[in-house]
Amino acid sequence: MSLTIIKPGILDTIQDLGRTGYGRLGINAGGVMDRYAAQVANMLVGNDTREAVLEIHFPGAQVLFEQNSLITITGGDFGPMINDEPIPLWHPIVVRKNAILHFPKLQYGNRCYLAVHGGFCVNKWLNSYSTHLKAGAGGFKGRKLEKGDEVPYRESCIYFAGLLKPGKELEVMKWKVDTGHTYLHPHEIYIIKGNEWEQLTSQSQEQMLEDNFIIHPFSDRMGYQLKGIDLKRVEDTELVSSGVSFGTIQLLPNGQLIVLMADHQTTGGYPRVGHVISAHLPKLAQLRPSDCIHFQITDLATAENLLIAQQQELNILQRACTERLNNLVC
Description:
It contains 4 helices and 21 strands.
């Protein structure tokens, strides 16, 4: 079983939840930008949440399914269609052999995720399926997908053809995921104070929390460069390079901010003035260049409670999806 890339998108790569434990060697975790959307995608098709998914940016690829398949698309809305029929996001969908998936129109969001039942059959590099573009490793041949690539996925025990009505190219399953809470107020991003927060002048601290920042067009999977009022430090002292993570907010020498994203470096020497809380990283990942961000300070306890609530929601969702799919098999 496999899918074939008929027309490549701007940046379509195989990703999973990232490769952890290699930061001491200078190898970043990488992985999907929106962990929530990727995990839900795998749940909806009955996969383990650590299975590989296809991360798609707009304009997205055109994909031919070589076999009857159970798929889902989560994350950003690029107006997905199977042949000429629109399909909904956050639903499991059975598609017929030789169906073509394409993404003709950007509605909202910055990236979406395609998961297939069984998971993509690609080799791991350092215990992860994720594509590391700079190292040329992981994913599908260590690179983004190109025209003619055939990406295999594992055989299924489900007879998908029996779920398709005669003459129909697809069948949308009757359950979906409500994601309104996770992506609520998309431009409001909670942060906790970073180690160098106190190095900002009191005026710059106020400005960082009162003003809006615009995502620069040069932003990518490594970091979101922000445009806003110049922020200032009390003293321009040199710092020893320290560990950074997904969501670290650094102050650049020109007074502007950068938010580190999934492909961030493992250490940095710029002041870490804040960190985006983990529960809001999915919202951040779906913001596009020219979108605005408004930061709001919160405390560690609130950040932990929001993350726990999000994980509890995912646990409930996984059990519900498993039950639905088991009934489907029966």
